[in-house]
Amino acid sequence: MPLLEPNPQALRPGTKRTPAPDRVPDLQARGTPRHLREELAALIGPEKVLSTISDLVRYASDASPYRFVPQVVVVPEDVDDISAILSYAHGKGREVVFRAAGTSLNGQAQGEDILVDVRRHWVGVEVLDGGARARIRPGTTLARANAALARYGRVLGPDPASAVACTIGGVVANNASGMTAGITRNSYRTVSSLTFVLPSGTVVDTADPAADDTLARAEPRLCEGLLALKAEIEADQELTARIRAKYTLKNTNGYRLDAYLDGATPVEILRGLMVGSEGTFGFISEVVFDTLPLDRAVSTALLLFPSLPAAAAAVPRFTEAGAIAVELMDGNTLRASARVPGAPADWAELPSESAALLVEFRAPDAAALEAYEEETGRVLEGLDLVAPVGSVDNAFTRDPGTIARLWKARKAFVTAVGGSRPPGTTLITEDFAVPPDRLAEACAELRELQARHGFEAAVAGHAAHGNLHFLLAFDAADPAAVERYASFMDAFCKLTVERFDGSLKAEHATGRNITPFLELEWGPKATELMWRTKELIDPDGILAPRIVLDRDPRAHLRNLKTIPKVEAIADPCIECGFCEPTCPSRDLTTTPRQRIVLRREMMRQSDGSPVEAGLLAAYGYAAVDTCAGDSTCALACPVGIDTGALMKEFRHARHSPREEGIAALTARDFRGVEAAARLAVAAGDRIGDRLMESVTGLVRRAVRPDLVPRWLPEIPGAAARRLPPTHRPAAVAVYYPACVNRVFGGADEARGPSLPEAVVRVSARAGKPVWIPDDVAGTCCATIWHSKGYERGNAVMANRIVEAAWGWTAGGRLPLVVDASSCTLGIAHEVVPYLTDDNRELHAELTVVDSLVWAADELLPRLDVRRRLGSAVVHPTCSMLHLGDEDRLTALAAACAVDVVVPDDVACCAFAGDRGMLHPELTAAATAREAAEVTARPFDAHLSANRMCEIGMDRATGRRYESALLALERATRP
Fold first, then answer.
1. What is 641-653 written as a DSSP string?
2. pTM over 0.90
């Protein structure tokens, strides 16, 4: 065992706990039963079987209010694996549930037996016919698919608020729609063809001209049964009319019975039935969508009304004027959304009785948009609008930044309101539709019903389509609260069906939440047809039982999850999963959501239980060590939950006082540490990679892998001991070369200038000379200590760099230009909590400028570009995203190359200072998709703006990455 192996018990929750009623029982502490684990490992390979208690718990929760712990999780790579799993389930009498993003809100991605992760290995987009169609794999996020289509001026029809996280498989399986899809742009209407695997293992490609003949040979009983049901429905005129009428509203409750009316052959019927089937009919392995035009001319407004009925009454005016989206938000929703990053803070002061419409018009060109705006002007004249706070101007805007902020606030409805729920309460998101002309009436009835049952009102929705969402929060551990919820649901469902003839699930699908009320909405005849369809396609009932169909009248109350209180930074989490696509460790260990889910299960357990012990044993590596700490999860989270910061706190909790003391000592004597590091890099360059890898490997095993970096062949030679000479009197900025650029040289430094030399030269060339202080050695942005959770060392260096910078910049009169994006972020923002009161005052006077911003905004306009490369690919770092300056990287690249590519799969490289040297497997997992995209074609330059990230991308791609400022210096060299 390594000498400094951390004690897992350091992460044990310190609070006094009462075991929760839904805690994982001690009998499951060993994870998957051995026979099940071994049989599946023999069938598809042990690396595809996840079986520890940590694995099972982290997959037990999703965005829904339910929690079901699977017996095993499998991660298939291809259709052969899927067929093998289904065959095994048939033979053993087991159940299978498919899960991709886990953003479903009604429990349809949860199972109690074999859970199949179909996200990890099922990503890919192929654009067809110049963008008119797209072939997409089911694990691809909707946002990723649209990014590939955007360059063709096309977009997919469905647009749910969870687009950044939800995957195509889930979008189709739930017939998700969103803000603009309505009933004409959803999956049912825009899917061109599907490839799917039936429960029997039969693979069907609906685009194959011979698909019906092939299916008839493989599944004659199924084909005959589908045609018989079609004939039965068509012979019943009353039922046919009822089915058609149900889909004049948004409706995802139950199966798409209109597939029997729209499809002429068994394959065509199956194509329709698979949409919205929630994984109960088969596995969708590929989707071909018909795409829609991406209208880029946009005008949007947030319009505030004195009341919810007043806002609802105005909706038809905007739909008649041609608005593509009319979104409703009541006062409580707006007030909660004030905590969404980017939303106006004064929304918190809006009257709770007020309501807003978010209205958007889209057009192919400016002239068409102007016509819409003229018509809208006439509509606005007849409305009673209010402006009780300064940020509300009730005006349309074309500004992309403002529009993006408005939509971010709207899409954060569930997380914003859910994040402000009382601690310890479970969140349920309901979704229904009524005829649009009765929207105001439905709003009033809903609010009265919520008040009568003791629930706070918070309503939002797609008003143009009569589709409303609302949230309910209650303590799932309290039987009385559960009964209050049950009573509300009974009343709500009867109201929706009997008063409005509405849809109980407009776009979130039935899941487990509405199964007891399916017959209430559809009636016994249609409901029985759904049961017969399920029995026909899945006669053994192996796929997702009790999802969509369940005869238990209290099924929606089963396995409601408790939400125990965890650390304050993570406690608002509603487990929506928006953070997962951006997480570097998502395909290696855990995601931010899973880190919180695991922590909550520890809180459910009694102190010292076998389950807690198993979770703690795995948590150190799976959650803490392999978190890159890049905090992009906070950017993705609608309410800014920073799980990376929590993992840094846990790293600190594992440190002994001795470790903290040593870290503080390295900060105090960093000049010596810096010199020693540069000598070590120089020595490694002379000794050779193989010996250095062996030496560091031995030390890592003896001390601790998470403390000692591994030598990598991609590590460049040492930087020059002396920085380039500069003169203070003429300088217009202070240039701070980051310590990584004082230790590591460039990959091509022998043939060209170093990065500090390039920055000095190109700044002088633009008439903006910079000065490098003589005493930068021994200073640092403090990120080294911050990222590892060494608080004492962090405080030492944070205060040192601020005091030094204040002196260098003459009390903040000159800007401080920093040549590594992570260091810019560190000095500008991350040091602040660790400063003394006096130094916070000094820090407030500093202007910290990233070198990208300096070069793009101050230098480039004053430079003559004399030569350009043919192509360049860029790697925006996570620090650039936090700083908001990634556009400067592409601007500099565009000055240096004709063709600039930002990979669609660009993500944090997870090198994270030295974490990529401590855990190379983390960077390998984080960069796999981006690297595949980069290496698919040659580029003349590979550009970024952080030395350690460049090393990480060198390792991932085998290509040489460098700072964009080096490219700019060469492009403008006389």
1. --HHHHHHHHHHH
2. yes
